[in-house]
Amino acid sequence: MKLNIAVLPGDGIGPEIMEQAIKVLDAIANKFGHDFKYSKAICGAEAIEMVGNPFPQNTYKICMKADAVLFAAVGDPRYDNDPEAKIRPEQGLLEMRRKLGLYANIRPVVTFECLHDRSPLKENILRDTNFVVIRELIGGMYFGKKYQDNYKAYDTDVYTRPEIERILKTAFELAQKRKHHLTVVDKANIMASSRLWRQIAKEMENNYPCVKTDYMFIDNASMRVITEPRFFDVIVTENTFGDILTDETSCITGSMGLQPSASLGLHTPLFEPVHGSWPQATGKNIANPIAQILSAAMLIEHFGLTDEGALLRNAVEGSLKEKVRTPDIQVYGGANYGTTQVGDWIANYIVDN
Ligand code: IPM
Ligand code: MN
Questions:
Q1: Ligand 1 centre and the CA of 137: distance in Å?
Q2: Which residues line ligand 1 (CB under 6 A)?
Q3: Domain total of the chain
Q4: Which of 46, 67, 190, 333 is deepest in the core (most CB within 10 A)?
Q5: pTM surpassing 0.90?
Q6: What would the mean pLDDT of 138-147 be, rounded to a whole number?
Q7: Which of 251, 286, 314 is at the close of a domain?
Q8: Whose CA is nearest to atom 6 of ligand 1?
């Protein structure tokens, strides 16, 4: 298969972890006779410095022409600590999501048995957790009308029927392919936007009789995902709730550095880790590349390369079992492996198996 992949390494640890993902994709391409071409493009703080725009027009063009986008992370402390900054790296990410129409962000939460001891949860709670959070990605407060002066400020949590229907359709369809259980997470006891979500979900429920649909308030859901994670199969929720909930769920496994995601919608699909750019670790060869590598797995699986995806996932699991791990998940007294060593080990496993 020929795939033209737009590669956006971004800021902080982005370039280091991206290098590992490309290494692994090349190993897959060689082994299975595929032709993966990479078109590199700038974004985030790097792009602000070079051209004054965190998602430049040229990067947009490269993304639109590609079959898929592989994205790492953006963000730089120089902007976080400057409340006056008019242009921020994160705006590039939001622009990218909006311009590519990526309304459905798919964030799987799967545990690895050999990492149970790394989780903040007890093993009996955590065991066999396997669910997916679908976060609406281009609506709600992130994009609604905003206002700010010295006395008053607001954000608007606005959603329209078509926006809600398309994301719920994605969720119902995924639940149909999985364990037929959908949990709609909202704050319908307080928020009008949530009440519309719930009304539309109740209408659509009838079209998916084999899916058991339930409704949960976000405050309750944020408690249940860590007290009873096995309850969930597919969760669907609005942009802001999904942002917060998935930082929480990303820790269930034991490290944020393990969680990939896919963003799907109107144009080119995008694959990215859930974590950020971890600027403090830049250049130290300590960042965990697995979230980025598993994002590459989601990318190839999106194009139907299931055997390839399975081998890649086996390779990742092999590295964890063999304790070839970066410091965030290494066992006490375990050997030191850096970002590149983990990437090499996983790529070599693919060559050898
Ligand atoms: C995420 C991130 C982004 C978000 C930031 C970096 C803008 O936290 O992808 O979850 O809030 O969506
Ligand atoms: Mn987030």
A1: 10
A2: 75, 90, 93, 243, 276
A3: 2
A4: 46
A5: yes
A6: 97
A7: 251
A8: 90
